[in-house]
From TrEMBL:
InterPro entries: ThiF/MoeB/HesA (IPR045886), ThiF_NAD_FAD-bd (IPR000594), Ubiquitin-activating_enz (IPR035985). It comes from the Bacteria. This is tRNA threonylcarbamoyladenosine dehydratase. One of its GO terms (molecular function) is ubiquitin-like modifier activating enzyme activity. Coiled coil: none annotated. Residues 11-238 form the THIF-type NAD/FAD binding fold domain. GO terms for biological process: cyclic threonylcarbamoyladenosine biosynthetic process. It holds the Pfam family ThiF.
Length: 240
């Protein structure tokens, strides 16, 4: 066992560390949620990971995204995050896909080779198709709902999507999932805090994104933490 995994082995035991090392995880979206989730997975000892993001670091990302620094503005997030993950675990089997997940690709990218999918997309259409793809192919998934317009950390939780409240993104996803006969059985990270509607900004609709909320530094990272925890606890199983 690598020396850097010593503290984790005390907690998860050798069997748990082996399960993590043998696991293969897909992380889609490397913004405020996905970048932190991917790092937590790598530090936990996940052996194989595929990361997907077509965006570059923007100056406005600095307040909340792990790869965002003044020195990385303009660089592809998949490169910045990928290099960081390899520096954490040089033995990580990492696949980097530098692309925005179109609806069609959402159905192609999910396969039974993955033990878990982390949906960290903030656009409705690709998020919806990624969830449907995982459900249809019976691959475990945890999906991040809206961290924007929220500030109370204690209101964040993991639940079935059918039990979400006070989240406009979750409301939209639930409605669209019901149209394809999926009304439960999707784990999501969400906040029950009432969303601050006055923090909503409309966009030009590019990259399947029509609007966004103002976001503080810690909430997306917290969503990423809960998503990573959900996957890691499943992967190690009864070793916890």
């Amino acid at each position: 066992m690598a020396k850097w995994k010593e503290r984790a082995e005390i907690l998860f035991k050798a069997e748990g560390i082996k399960k993590l090392n043998d696991s293969n995880v897909l992380v889609v979206g490397l913004g405020g949620v996905g970048s932190f989730a991917a790092e937590f997975l790598a530090r936990a000892g996940v052996g194989s990971m595929t990361i997907v993001d077509g965006d570059v670091v923007d100056i406005t990302n600095i307040n909340r995204q792990l790869p965002a620094l003044h020195s990385t503005v303009g660089q592809p997030k998949v490169d910045v995050v990928g290099d960081r993950l390899m520096d954490i675990n040089p033995e990580l089997k990492l696949t980097r896909l530098k692309e925005f997940l179109s609806p069609e690709r959402a159905f192609e990218i999910v396969t039974d080779e993955f033990d878990y999918v982390l949906d960290c997309i903030d656009s409705v259409t690709p998020k919806l198709n990624l969830i449907i793809s995982a459900k249809r192919k019976k691959v475990k998934i945890v999906s991040s709902m809206g961290a924007g317009g929220k500030v109370i950390a204690s209101k964040v939780k993991v639940s079935d999507i059918s039990k979400t409240e006070n989240c406009f993104l979750a409301k939209t996803i639930k409605k669209r999932l019901k149209e394809v006969k999926i009304d439960k059985g999707v784990k999501v990270v969400f906040s029950s805090e009432i969303q601050r509607e006055d923090s909503l900004i409309r966009t030009d609709g590019s990259n399947f994104k029509k609007s966004f909320y103002g976001t503080c530094s810690y909430m997306p990272g917290l969503f990423g933490l809960y998503a990573a925890e959900t996957a890691i606890r499943h992967l190690v199983g009864d070793q916890i």
